[in-house]
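Dear support,

I submitted the protein below through the web form. The confirmation email said the job was done, but the results page showed an empty box. After a refresh the structure appeared. I'm attaching both so you can tell me whether what I see now is the final result or a partial one.
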Amino acid sequence: MIFSDILALVIVYIYVIIIFVIAELVLKTKPEVSRKFLHIMVGNMIFAMPFFADPWTMVWFLTLPITVALFFLTEYSPIKIENSVTESGHALGLFFYAAIWTILIAVFSKQLWIVALAIVPMVYGDGFAALIGQKFGKIKYTVFGGTKSLEGSLTMFVITTVMSVFVWMVFTSIGYPMPEFNLVYIIAISAVATVCEALSYGGIDNLSVPTITSILYYLITIL
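What the results page shows now:
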């Protein structure tokens, strides 16, 4: 492991620890806000990915250990650890959240931009959709037992589109190899991600949305 990867790991771990502490302590009285705060802020790790010389460093020393740690915070863990973050949401939601990072980085280690864009709807789109939907959602709809709001779904589509463009531009600006920018592709895939989230329930969207999004970007831009 080269020095730059070690430095990147240290910085990311410090950042993640700070976010977890804030979510657990400062926001403890508002567990749902705490969970979404963690959901969104940890997602900012996508901007650190291009700075790793070896993407597998992230898998073995970052995303996989975090995935294992989060499993022990679920109700399925053989060791019971009380915490307000995972208990406020779906039992396996955060576990799936970390697991999909590990899977995508392993599969698309040569195209980390696909990983970043696949993570965007899960992190920013779904994160802000839940906050806006719970606060301002008036038009409700139920699919497969899960109740969502039209306002939340529209928020997911808009935020996913805007943040996807932003992430694309950031990766391009730092010199990461990217295909030709195409706004139509981004809008279309953001729409599919929004529908996929609407059809998912019980935290499974943390797996389904990034998976579908990554496959679409691969099919459209690589094949």
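Response: this is the final, complete result; the empty box was a page-load delay. Residues 85-89 have pLDDT under 50 and may be disordered.
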